[in-house]
Amino acid sequence: FIYLFSFSVIFFLYRPQVVDTRNGSTVTEFILVGFEQSSPSTRALLFALFLTLYSLAMAMNGLIIFITWTDPRLNSPMYFFLGHLSFLDVCFITTTIPQMLIHLVIKNHTLTFASCLTQMYLVFGVGVAECILLAFMAYDRYVAICHPLSYAQIMSRQVCVRLVSTAWFFGLINGILLDYMTFRGPFCRDNHIENFFCEAPIVIALSCGDPQFSLRVIFADAIVVLLSPMVLIVISYAHILASILGRNSSSGRGKTFSTCASHLTVVIFFYTSAMFSYMNPRSTHGPDKDKPFSLLYTIITPMCNPVIYSFRNKEMKGAMVRALGRSSLSQAESV
């Protein structure tokens, strides 16, 4: 409902002015350059690679969603958040990668303004929601490690639902602002986007007017959206580290470090790539620099999240074995 309301606000309250001043005609679409300049053999190799990564990411995140929502042994807040993180990753990767795979096969790389606007809104909304959710997951680990006796009371089911709803709400509302700042001006320059999806700083650079105001707003928004959760994460793990070092049991330290290391790895992957894309001056950007970082947070991170969490967590591995065992048993009975 929130998504439909948000998109309606964007689409009906303003319409981007897209005029090509070179010949007076109206610009109705963008062209995603992506990997268009690569050789056919390179595109075929990239298609196979990205299709494999996309399939793995969808399968692994889908499995985590299934087991965290169905296995009664994984009923703690950590796995509740992990299930929603995997759901966000599925949404995030689906907004960009299927389109990129299609463009690697066909020659028509055009994208309508409505499609570009929608894709950018989803990337912003889901990306911001994931930033906030990662901060809430750090807070969850802080409460679990530093206040174990009060953990069940502080991180009740109702609180967890409210935190996840907050992440989604701010993500989708923030997407309205960023979409508006991107498409508020007329477009009359080259409509070629030097990336494989509609990325805001690149699209803003194609507008007729001065793009500096929109870029400053997006930069300021990135500071709030990225650095505020990052501060909460740093504070949470600073308290966790102090609590771990104060313990006498070395085995307890190792288990706690193992649990927190997986979360920190995900945070480093996601925040590093996002900060480069939205907090660096545009003068330092270019197609050769933008694409690797875009790939990092659009496909590599969503694929790595389930791997990092699963293979470093005995409970997750056990739940996966049980889920796969039930699936094999049901198939044998049907035969």
TrEMBL record:
Pfam families per the UniProt record, alphabetical: 7tm_4
InterPro entries linked to this entry: GPCR_Rhodpsn (IPR000276), GPCR_Rhodpsn_7TM (IPR017452), Olfact_rcpt (IPR000725)
UniProt KW rRNA processing keyword: no
UniProt-listed CDD domains: 7tmA_OR2-like
Keyword vocabulary terms for this entry: Cell membrane, G-protein coupled receptor, Membrane, Olfaction, Receptor, Sensory transduction, Transducer, Transmembrane, Transmembrane helix
GO cellular component, one term: plasma membrane
GO molecular function: G protein-coupled receptor activity; olfactory receptor activity
Domain G-protein coupled receptors family 1 profile stretches: 60-309
Signal peptide start and end residues: none
Membrane topology: Multi-pass membrane protein
Subcellular location: Cell membrane
Keyword Transmembrane helix set for record: yes
Ranges that cross the membrane: 45-67, 79-106, 118-139, 159-177, 222-245, 257-279, 294-312
Job description of the protein: Putative odorant or sperm cell receptor.
Protein family: Belongs to the G-protein coupled receptor 1 family.
Name of the protein this chain belongs to: Olfactory receptor
Source organism of the structure: Bos mutus grunniens (Wild yak)
Lineage: Eukaryota, Metazoa, Chordata, Craniata, Vertebrata
Recorded name of the encoding gene: OR10AD1
